UniProtKB/TrEMBL annotation:
InterPro entries membership: FAD/NAD-bd_sf (IPR036188), FAD/NAD-binding_dom (IPR023753)
Family matches, as Pfam families: Pyr_redox_2
Top-rank taxon, per record: Eukaryota
Species name: Chaetomium fimeti
GO cellular component term of the entry, any: cytoplasm
Name under which the protein is recorded: FAD/NAD(P)-binding domain-containing protein
PANTHER family: APOPTOSIS-INDUCING FACTOR 1 (PTHR43735), FERROPTOSIS SUPPRESSOR PROTEIN 1 (PTHR43735:SF3)
Segments forming domain FAD/NAD(P)-binding: 4-293
Amino acid sequence: MSKTVVILGGSIAGLHVAHALLKKQIKDTKVILVSKNSHFYWNLASVRAIIPGQITDEQLFQPLQTALSRYPAESWELVIGSASKADFGAKTVEITLPDNTTRALPYHQLVLATGARSSSPDTPWKSPGTYEETLASLHDTAARVTNAQHIVVAGAGSTGIEVAGELGYEYGKTKEIILLCSGDKVAGGSSLADAAANELKKLNVTIKYGAHVQETRPGTGDAQGKTEVVFTGGETLATDLYLPTTGLIPNTEYIPSQFLGPGEVARPVLVDEFLRVPETEEVWACGDIVSKPRAGFFITQKQAISVAKNVEAALAGLKPTVAKGPPMDILACAVGRERGVGRINNTIKMPSFMVWAAKGRTLALPMVKTYIDGSVA
């Protein structure tokens, strides 16, 4: 009897797992990749793509069809749509298609890799929807960056640091760039905080500490046409462009609530040491939908490798193996196009030139090719 592996999500985690399984050419097995975006999106470079003229659309986006078409046609299917309901008992997933009709996909093995979205849906740091919607978000943000003379970046985590760094590198001498930090140190106070703040200062980025945003609203009076940022203490700041980078929300709304972590909104899917969803035998998860130990590229890569191996083992009737994470916890932030900051295991500081060479120079854009030709897996 033929078996079906359904993979929900066509980004870094999902496409990696698809390649790993399809390259094995497992007998009588079909892989169905479901993605709301018809293109693979290298969102890691979105922080630089908002600077006009730096990165082309083709560098950021490649068709998923191209990635899968190297395998025998009978071994895979690409479904463009979004998961709207999962029934782990019945082993089916309901997919909402672009025309708003639905399709039920039965599965023998299911991989949850639908990632996470930004809490601010109009930003391009994560794909906000379809290929067309994501492309429009990038282009619109780049146009607003060009026209703005005063830009506020909210959130001083890794994305906020990189966005502010790119803006400061390009416009630090001609535009006012302000980074809002809710605490007294950027990067959550980690060991790279002081280095990141110093690098941003060199790029003429102003960091406003203790800045808790209560709301934003259209400006009035002298601030007509601007955005007013309202802080919890009542202070307001008018800006031409407000770019929030805070908050990731796992895309888990289609998953029954008993399989999700606590919380009201940002509820990641629960997994065991095998990256299997507890109380199931054939449902696995990897990437930002898990957010364990945190969301991150290297973590996602390792999780995808483990999930692919465990799905292959399950198809053969073998037991799963414990998932392995990266050998070291690495966090690296590009700060502009020539510098960067990073740390290893929160104790070892990475030299700026090392971060630049490994990440800041290209934001890993050459890796897009590996996800399209399958060599990543």
